[in-house]
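User: Hey, my collaborator sent me this sequence without any context and asked if I could get a structure. I don't really work with proteins. Can you help?
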Amino acid sequence: MIGKKCLFLSKKIYLSESLIPKAGRGVFAAVNIKKGEVIEQCPIVKIPPHNVELLRQSELINYYFLWGKNFTEAAIALGLGSIYNNSDKANAAYKEKE
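Assistant: No problem. I've predicted the 3D structure and written it out in structure-token form, which is a compact way to encode the shape of the chain:
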């Protein structure tokens, strides 16, 4: 039986190695995604402010987002969320669920 709060991976995206040399893996669109459309809902692991500097010094530097009211916390998105947008020209945004 599936629980009430079951999360499913999005059918809009997939994880794959990039065709760009030395780019590594990435998240790619499986279908056209409209501006403003939700790509995926990801649970997060919140990182308290006193541990954010440790993330910056670790292998997780490219996989966390600044979080919280004043962006003093961080969050690691589960699912594929922390693999998106590792670019200065990000084409997707995140927002905290209200």
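In plain terms: The chain has a mean pLDDT of 84. You can pass these tokens on to your collaborator as they are.
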